[in-house]
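For homework, think about our next protein:
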Amino acid sequence: MNHTEIAWDCGSGNGQAAVNLAEIFNKVFATDASAKQIEHAIIHKNVSYSVQPSENTNFHDSSFDCVTVAQAIHWFDLKKFYNEVNRVLKPGGLLCVWGYTWFKISDDIDEIVEKTLITSLKDYWAPQTKLLQDGFKDLVLPYKQIVVPSFEIVVHWDLTQIISYLHSWSPMKSYGEKHGEKGMDLLFEGLIRVWGSKDKKRKISMPIYMKASKRDV
């Protein structure tokens, strides 16, 4: 039996995970509740995008060999989502979820980031993000858990790239609205001071938290 025929990527955003899944699966269906995200999705011949909430889709029963969620499950209504997974996942199929939060660069920079960024933004994160920030330790998947190896994202970025990434964090908008441009500048002051030349590239690692479970045949 072919278990790499068809996959569903939930909360796909612009399809970063979906296009990688398409290198393994013959067909990938990628959904997101945001039409804006789907409008900017990465085109791939084996990926079909649609605007649908992950908790309620128009897919047929027992459609998928694998269901994946990258950096999004903490936004779902888990009870409703698991019911939907149970409906569309084939017997013996996999449910795999993963995400990442803080990064590591070096002891001095990590300390600065902890004191000036993570601490300052603590009260601005949506409550749902705690599930991810805790490394999914409280996330219980509906089927038998599979032991997965450790993964991490490794990139080499200069100062402009890391600051651009930090600006993408969800609490940045509300923090900026309250503290203004000067407050935003203060967030990055310590990081800029210890980084060195803005063109200097540093190794940045982000541990990936992943859980996987397999439905009984």
Notes: The chain has seven helices and eight strands. The mean pLDDT is 94.
